[in-house]
Request: fold
Amino acid sequence: MNKKVLLSSLICVLLAGCSSTSNMSINKVKGAPTDVRIVVNHVESTEGQLLVYLHDNAGSYYSDDNYSASSIKYFHRIVVKPSIPATEVVLTDIPAGKYAISVVHDKDSDGTLDRMVFPFIGMPSEPYGLSNDAYSALSKGSFEDALVDIAAQVQPIEIKLATHLSKTFGG
Reply:
């Protein structure tokens, strides 16, 4: 009997660890619809497109930001033309709640965040930004660190674009 309890406990612990990349929305109740104003700063060129994502789950946040992937459950996504030095984006009728925002400056308009082959394999090579400027030295910052409360907004949410190298090493 103790083996069953131990095995059940181990399975629960393993499943709890997997929940950080869940496709389940963290918003259990739909809030009142509101507009979300986002200002994307540090736009250095008008080439390509900006891919703007609103994430209500860790699964879409940790995806590789492939805009056209039907398997990824983004809460909302939109493509906009970049403007120098900043681009304002308005998302309408978004239910109030907690969300993470990510923006990719898709300079080659291929619908995905390009990554380096050399010298830092897998590091993003196109500029991107995250809500709360969440990032770590080796990857995106955590979903929890990027969450913002969205309700009736007075101030826009600011996203700073930069390459991962400049986020990590400055410049």
Summary: The chain is about 20% helix and 30% strand. Confidence is low (pLDDT under 50) at residues 5-19. The two ends are 60 Å apart (CA to CA). The first helix runs from residue 2 to 18.
